[in-house]
């Protein structure tokens, strides 16, 4: 099953453990997590369901291309990693 | 290129011993110009390492003054610097370490035309700032001028590093990775805290990448490195160009 992990910077705001999800796309994988943790949706996605601009999602180490509809394909053994931009210096 | 003096050969001997650098690489460093935006947590190790490594012309910009809370991690400053401009304080330390390099201080916040002008007259820019507005402004200026950008960020136990060089056709820019100014903030160090050596880790990585760029050593582009100090882990992610990026999609890629 695809595996989804949230970077530590996101964990500081909302605790979201690593999960196994059944999903063919990034969007479906996130929906599977939102079903368990609805509070995460507004943190990751805007009102239109697009990925928020300070977020990035990587599937098997590659940034997703479809930030609007999150249609990037996820393989059964994929690893999804959700990251938030940091600004501190 | 100018011949290295005996003193310089001695000072930089541990660089010259590296076949990837050699005398030619060190001469390239001595002839190079780097702009350091921010003289805080990241800017401290960046400034000290670039000065000690012999990057010939260094410009360091910061409009902030040194406060006691900075001294926990901003190692270019010390107790005697309290109340002093950060860029000025860092410059003094850089020159004490290596008077052979030229250090120029900009004691104000670079923005608009002054930012564009400064970026254009350097060979590499190191983003050591602490806010998204500056990060995006620095990125725009670097793309416009075709100057490579070494971006670092750190807060709490987390760090990020990326090198952008939009002279290379395949390289994304910062905006390709994070499309606009972040709506939500990861928060300044004053709110969330930051582990002292975390900024040393990320700032040192920035200095490594800048030296490679300046010495002509190949640098991995289109990559975001993530460091998690609690997990003691590094992750490397690939970042493609965004063909619709409003900042870099119109560039004349590969012209150099
Ligand atoms: Zn771009």
Automatic annotation (TrEMBL), chain A:
SUPFAM superfamilies per UniProt: MoaD/ThiS (SSF54285)
Gene3D superfamilies: 3.10.20.30
Protein name: ThiamineS protein
The species this protein was found in: Pseudogulbenkiania ferrooxidans 2002
TrEMBL record, chain B:
Keyword vocabulary terms for this entry: ATP-binding, Nucleotide-binding, Transferase
SUPFAM superfamilies the UniProt entry points to: Activating enzymes of the ubiquitin-like proteins
Pfam families linked to this entry: ThiF
Gene Ontology molecular functions: ATP binding; molybdopterin-synthase adenylyltransferase activity; sulfotransferase activity; thiosulfate-cyanide sulfurtransferase activity; ubiquitin-like modifier activating enzyme activity
Source species, domain of life: Bacteria
Reaction(s) the record says it catalyses: [molybdopterin-synthase sulfur-carrier protein]-C-terminal Gly-Gly + ATP + H(+) = [molybdopterin-synthase sulfur-carrier protein]-C-terminal Gly-Gly-AMP + diphosphate
Domain THIF-type NAD/FAD binding fold residues, every copy: 12-247
Top EC class of this enzyme: transferase
Cellular component annotations (GO), alphabetically ordered: cytosol
EC number: 2.7.7.80
Subunit structure: Homodimer. Forms a stable heterotetrameric complex of 2 MoeB and 2 MoaD during adenylation of MoaD.
Purpose: Catalyzes the adenylation by ATP of the carboxyl group of the C-terminal glycine of sulfur carrier protein MoaD.
Entry similarity comment: Belongs to the HesA/MoeB/ThiF family.
Name of protein: Molybdopterin-synthase adenylyltransferase
């Amino acid at each position: 099953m695809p595996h989804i992990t949230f970077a530590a910077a996101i964990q500081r705001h909302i605790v979201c453990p690593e999960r196994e999800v059944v999903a063919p796309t990034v969007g479906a994988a996130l929906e599977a997590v939102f079903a368990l943790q609805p509070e995460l949706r507004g943190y990751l996605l805007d009102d239109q369901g697009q990925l928020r601009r300070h977020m990035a999602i990587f599937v098997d180490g590659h940034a997703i291309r479809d930030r609007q509809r999150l249609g990037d394909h996820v393989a059964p053994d994929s690893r999804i990693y959700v990251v938030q931009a940091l600004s501190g210096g | 290129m100018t011949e290295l003096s005996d003193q310089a050969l001695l000072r930089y001997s541990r660089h010259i011993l590296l076949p990837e650098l050699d005398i030619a690489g060190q001469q390239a460093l001595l002839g190079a110009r780097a702009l350091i935006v921010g003289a805080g947590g990241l800017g401290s190790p960046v400034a000290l390492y670039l000065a000690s490594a012999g990057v010939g012309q260094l410009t360091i910009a910061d409009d902030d003054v040194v406060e006691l809370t900075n001294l926990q991690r901003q190692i270019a400053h010390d107790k005697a610097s309290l109340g002093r401009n950060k860029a000025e304080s860092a410059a003094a330390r850089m020159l004490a370490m290596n008077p052979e390099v030229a250090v120029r201080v900009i004691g104000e916040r670079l923005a608009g035309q002054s930012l564009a002008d400064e970026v254009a007259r350097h060979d590499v820019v190191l983003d050591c700032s602490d806010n998204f507005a500056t990060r995006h402004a620095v990125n725009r200026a670097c793309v416009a001028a075709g100057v490579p950008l070494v971006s670092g960020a750190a807060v709490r136990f987390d760090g990020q590093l990326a090198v952008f060089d939009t002279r290379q056709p395949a390289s994304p820019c910062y905006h390709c990775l994070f499309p606009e100014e972040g709506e939500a903030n990861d928060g300044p160090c004053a709110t969330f805290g930051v582990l002292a050596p975390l900024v040393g880790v990320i700032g040192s990585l920035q200095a490594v990448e800048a030296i490679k760029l300046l010495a002509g050593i190949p640098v991995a582009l289109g990559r975001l490195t993530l460091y998690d100090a609690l997990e003691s882990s590094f992750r490397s992610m690939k970042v493609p160009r965004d063909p619709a990026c409003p900042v870099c999609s119109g560039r004349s890629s590969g012209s150099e």
